[in-house]
Amino acid sequence: DQQVKQNSPSLSVQEGRISILNCDYTNSMFDYFLWYKKYPAEGPTFLISISSIKDKNEDGRFTVFLNKSAKHLSLHIVPSQPGDSAVYFCAAQGAQKLVFGQGTRLTINP
Amino acid sequence: SQTIHQWPATLVQPVGSPLSLECTVEGTSNPNLYWYRQAAGRGLQLLFYSVGIGQISSEVPQNLSASRPQDRQFILSSKKLLLSDSGFYLCAWTEGQGWAKNIQYFGAGTRLSVL
Asked: What is the mean pLDDT of chain A?
């Protein structure tokens, strides 16, 4: 039972353009959502989060949007930079633990 | 500031050998602690989590076990490794309470190869 899904395993974007990563969830009890960024052979690093009482949270080039009725969240990166190339995981807060999606590999092309 | 240490960074072990991976957190008290595994090309699978000393919750039946002998120490073990235990193992911590409990901070990971 995959409660958090990232349906796109990979995404390729040109440098300077907008990157949009998507995530869907099934459990309406989730009340907090996070995005993590992961480079190869390293642990994930926290990027940005959003509470279920909000529909948007912005931090510099990163913006997370939450659509509760659709049970969908997205991460926008603009402008995209080469250093943004990594695997991005979305996660939802459950009881005492996070439920992670499968990840989307983002590649920024020069 | 808080830091998380995880070691070793890489490990090559023969099938049937024991395993012990250690994770420690500094700069906080009573954290929630987590062990994850990332298999090649896959997402993060939660293996165990702990909300206090001696309190371990297992998410997936498997060949592994976890222990928390001290407040900021979390150990992942196996008596006999299987080939399927190969993967990238990650330890994480979070504040035990309050809004900050939602954000997990990860260690650098251990790459385990069972041959």
From this structure: 94
